[in-house]
Amino acid sequence: MKINQISVFLENRTGQLAEITHLLADNGVDMRAISIAETADYGILRLLVDDTERAEGILRENGNILTLTPVTIVGVPDEPAALSKLLSVLADNGVDIVYMYSLFTHPGGKAYMVFRVADKDKLSDVLDANGISKATKEEIGLK
Amino acid sequence: MANYYQPEIETASPEQIRAWQDERLVAQVKHVWDNVPYYRAKMEEKGVTPDDIKSCADLHKLPFLTKDDLREAYPYGLMGKPLSECVRIQSTSGTTGKRVVAFYTQKDIDLWEDCCARAIMAVGGTKDDVCHVSYGYGLFTGGPGLNGGSHKVGCLTLPMSSGNTDRQLQFMCDLGSTIICCTPSYAEYLAESIEERGLKDQIKLKAGIFGAEAWSENMRHDIEEKLGIKAYDIYGLTEISGPGVSFECEDQTGMHINEDHFIAEIINPETGEVLPEGEKGELVFSCITKEAFPLLRYRTKDICVLTREKCSCGRTFVKMSKPMGRSDDMLIVKGVNVFPSQIEQVLLEQGYPANYQIVVDRVNHSDTLEVMVEMTPENFSDNLGQITEMEKSLVAALKAMLGIYAKVKLVAPKTIARSEGKAVRIIDKRKI
Ligand SMILES: [Zn+2]
Q: Do residue B246 and residue B168 come from a single domain?
């Protein structure tokens, strides 16, 4: 089951981010996670939403440039050192993380990390080998 | 194998060419002084008489002519022969104001057609070829010029004129056209139509002579691949005669100027100062053999470079680069000449749309150049590093082309301001 993140091109203009979040809210799309990477001149908005297909259509219709990026989501117990343990496993097995961020909801009392890695299959194998399960869409409330 | 129409002229020694130019220029200046009061008045105003012009070294003393002069002198003011001795009028498709009309004696027509014949033979044309002329016929010089040149070479000439693509393709297939002469954009259109109709096997074309509008190396490769031909450039302007003022040879590295008829100079468009060969500037022509419309030091507004390196084709005429832009559009940033067309070329090569905006400003007494470029879905990625890399390579390509640093600003699509559907390409904040 593939989970896609929506990556949107942001130019360095005040208000563009608010325009996008309003647009989605007005159309009843709920955001699950948001992250921004930027330089002085432009940026990339990364979004996880409950209805990816719908959000994609709305954003495109409004002239945004975007791309869908497959990501892997892992739930970690909400306790000290849980995240660092997970990251150690990935580091020890040579998983190259391009970027990561977290969901702002905590379904089931867990923290959820969104990973974009260089090699998705490798991440999958490492998680399996270490008995760590990937989050499903239902688990985090995605359609 | 090289193919010349007039080998003794086209491969003459540089000294011989210079000798012809010296002799013909001196005679032409006398002819103009005696017969063209408009230009004589300009010479008098500058304090120059025919006695001051003893060779090409004195050419810089003569006054310039511009398109404004042609409009002011319209229609007969720049004629060097009485109407009774003229046999033809051609005209340019001017965008504003009065049209420019040019007159020809039979001798003028002959030398113009000779120039076109040289161009056709330079692309391998012989009397065994079928030369398909799809330039417009009429006041426009494209059709009549290549038509005459084709006759002189002895090609079987197909005076197709422009338009009616079905008929063009039918004749091309049925009559076995081997050389096509048209605008590069029409060549692309024909190529696409041939592809769509699956006619490629029936096409016998080997070469094309394309001119009358700007085109890029990318377009050349595209046309060559789609039509399975070699695509050659040709340059000319009605004021000077028409197509064939210069033409490309098999080397495809610039166009040989027919220097036995036209003297080319490169000038600084700001000051009018003559620049040494190899420097970029505005191209200026003096007609030294034409009788009816003998323009001297006519400013073309085309920006290019002249080179006199030995050419593999054996021709000794100087070569001009494809025009890089118009002097009207030139920007001077940090003392360097910048043309929007150069920026456009880099963008297209790097896979960006040619919709851009150039912003020039002065910060702390130093010029800044910024190029706004629209992001495209193809170039976008979720990875910031990847976009930054692309931006860096665009900056490097711009630097290589322009010689100065240009900041690149990536913007969302359709954000570059347009007025009346036409994009505003240059914003020069220094003038405000
Ligand atoms: Zn050559």
A: yes
Query: Above 70 in pLDDT, residue B417?
Result: no
Nearest to B89 by CA among B160, B158, B139, B33: B139
For an interface test with B, which of A23, A38, A42 has the most B Cβ atoms less than 10 Å from its Cβ? A42
Residue ending a domain, choose from B282, B301, B327: B327
Q: Is the pLDDT of residue A32 over 90?
A: yes
Q: How many domains does chain B have?
A: 2
A107 close contact with B: CB closer than 8 A: no
The CATH number assigned to the domain holding B127 equals: 3.40.50.12780
Q: Is residue B53 part of a domain?
A: no
Domain residues for the domain of B74 are 7-17+64-327
Question: Which residues does chain A have within 8 Å of residue B375's beta carbon, measured at their own beta carbons?
Answer: 9, 11, 42, 65
ipTM of the complex: 0.85
Comparing CB atoms, the residue among A63, A64, A69 nearest residue B382 is A69
pTM of the predicted model as reported, rounded to 2 decimal places: 0.73
Shared domain for B316 and B355, answered yes or no, is no
DSSP H or E stretch at residue A49: strand A42-49
Dump pLDDT digits (tens) for B37-80. 999 999 999 999 999 999 999 999 999 999 989 989 999 999 99
Note the pLDDT tens digit of each residue in A81-139. 889 999 999 999 999 999 999 998 888 889 999 999 999 999 999 999 999 999 999 98
